[in-house]
Design a protein that fits this description.
- It catalyses: oxaloacetate + 2 Na(+)(in) + H(+) = pyruvate + 2 Na(+)(out) + CO2.
- The chain has about 80 residues and is an all-alpha fold.
- It has a domain of about 45 residues.
- About 75% of the residues lie in helices and about 0% in strands.
- The longest helix has about 40 residues.
- The chain starts with a helix and ends with a helix.
- About 0% of the residues are buried.
- The mean pLDDT is about 85.
Length: about 80
């Protein structure tokens, strides 16, 4: 094959490949849009009610809160010392 024939075949292959990818992506967009519309028909716009439970009261008393607070303060102090 000569150089112009190779270029012609290369361009032909490139255009065929780009066309194939374009058609595939177009079909993908169309099918995704169609599926969204189909699912949208069956989906109700009302959110399902969620049963809410009251928040559990924290366990322990003020002594435990003070202990936790001192642990947090110590961790913050150590973190600041490293900088």
């Amino acid at each position: 094959m000569t150089q112009p024939d190779l270029m012609s075949e290369g361009i032909n292959l490139m255009l065929f490949g780009m066309g194939f990818v374009f058609v595939f992506l177009a079909l993908l967009v169309v099918s995704t849009t169609a599926m969204s519309k189909i699912v949208g028909r069956f989906d109700s716009n009302e959110p399902e009610p969620v049963a809410s439970r009251p928040a559990a009261a924290p366990q322990g008393g003020p002594a435990q809160d003070q202990k936790l607070l001192s642990i947090i303060n110590e961790a913050i102090r150590q973190h600041r010392e490293r900088k």
